[in-house]
Amino acid sequence: MTVTRFAPSPTGYLHVGNLRTALFNYLIAKKTGGQFILRLDDTDPERSKPEYADAIKQDLEWLGIEWDRVETQSSRLERYAMAADKLREIGRFYEAFETPTELDLKRKKQLNMGKPPVYDRAALDLSNAEKDALRAERGSGVWRFKLDHARISWTDGILGEISIDAASVSDPVLIRGDGQVLYTIASVVDDTEMGITHVVRGSDHVTNTATQIQIIEALGGTVPNFAHHSLLTGPQGEALSKRLGTLALRDLRENGVEPLALLSHMARIGSSDPIELRANMAELIEGFDLSRFGSAPTKFDVDDLYPLTAKHLHGLDVSAVAPDLDALAIPQEQREAFWNVARDNITTRRDIETWWLLCRDGAEPVIDDADKDFVADALGLLPDTPFDADSWSNWTAAVKEKTGRKGRGLFMPLRKALTGMSHGPDMSQLMPLLRVIRAKT
């Protein structure tokens, strides 16, 4: 059975980059009838906040991404301690005491010598007495995993064949000096013990994957199938990382982006498949194919979400927007007619209010100077309310006969006089819903 996971840190709000990872793992699991685990990486007690954990769940629920179970790493610290003990027992875990300044000097010296800035394993040469002295002076050291200096290879689900020389990578720190367990070992232990079969994440994790493979093997676990999707950039190819704070899912929701529009976009962007609006999650699951994604950086433009949002809304039945209509107190007997007129002229749900206020309260006329006399004559011919389906055609015919105007010169000034706008629905359908404020001419 396919088992995947999404492991966000509850230290902030989810953004589009997080969503891509969550969605890929969810779709892979559900396409095969497998399990999708939401795993909160909350081992940092200072930065992890319950409100962020709640927000993560709310964002996923809004999108319709359902998890089979929730796990928290903070409840599994004992399991990580046991794994650390095992690594010590087999000689793959060692304590190191360098300060950040010392490490920085070592890196600079290596770079000056034309060597890769890799940790030199000086801590392995320390005697027990030297370690005791350093602990007395500096406190506990960090714990590093001792990599086997061999090539680490795997077949990546997106990138293809990957091979990394472990000698070109520093022995990773798995436990900090203050005892905090870091992501790498916690993730390895969880993936192993939870039976994770597939891991999809960003390509910035490729080197991390290499070290994790060795840790998994050292602990006797089964290496999952790894795949690394491309990273998102801005529409001009610029780094998106600095803007991710402005691309939080909650902000997209507040700005009116529809869940299926966002999911349809994120499930195809960066692949060889066209981006098309899907009707539901089942269609997204059925059409998802990880092998169709490429390794090149993927351009993301938030503006691309709004045409999809509009298309989604245009296809909704009046019952699907009932809560929005309830909020505006639109009378039941007017709802279907109003929605049939308004829906093709909105981009987000917030636009519904604009059209309802026009229908309910009317609009201040917009009249160009050149059209003042024409509009005054036309309004004098305006039929009495309530308007019906023939009011627009009858009115414009009468105005045409009196003024001789036709085409755009006839219709546009009248539309602007009644609605205050130069665009909108078919006036023959809109006019029966309008309350008109007559122009003062």
CATH topology of the largest domain: Rossmann fold
By secondary-structure content and strand pairing, the structural class works out as alpha/beta
Number of strands: 12
State the helix count.
18
Share of residues in helices: 40-55%
Helix and strand string, N-terminal first? EHEHEHEHHEEEEHEHEEHHHEHHHHHHHH
- Our count of domains comes out at 4
Could you explain how this protein is built, in words?
By secondary structure, the protein is of the alpha/beta class. The chain folds into 4 domains: 3-71 and 182-233, 3-Layer(aba) Sandwich (Rossmann fold); 79-175, Glutamyl-tRNA Synthetase, Domain 3 (Glutamyl-tRNA Synthetase, domain 3, Alpha-Beta Complex), CATH 3.90.800; 316-361, no CATH class; 369-433. The protein contains 18 helices and 12 strands. The protein has helices at residues 16-31, 50-63, 77-89, 100-112, 128-138, 183-193, 206-218, 249-254, 259-266, 281-286, 305-314, 322-327, 332-342, 351-361, 372-380, 391-403, 408-419, 427-430, and strands at 3-6, 35-40, 69-72, 93-96, 142-145, 151-156, 160-165, 173-175, 198-202, 225-229, 232-233, 298-299. A 3-stranded parallel beta sheet has the order 1-2-3, covered by helices on one side. Strands 4-5-8 form a 3-stranded antiparallel beta sheet. The model has no long low-confidence stretch (mean pLDDT 95).
Secondary-structure map with pairings?
Blueprint: E1 3-6, H1 16-31, E2 35-40, H2 50-63, E3 69-72, H3 77-89, E4 93-96, H4 100-112, H5 128-138, E5 142-145, E6 151-156, E7 160-165, E8 173-175, H6 183-193, E9 198-202, H7 206-218, E10 225-229, E11 232-233, H8 249-254, H9 259-266, H10 281-286, E12 298-299, H11 305-314, H12 322-327, H13 332-342, H14 351-361, H15 372-380, H16 391-403, H17 408-419, H18 427-430
Parallel strand pairs: 1-2, 2-3, 9-10, 11-12
Antiparallel strand pairs: 4-5, 5-8, 6-7
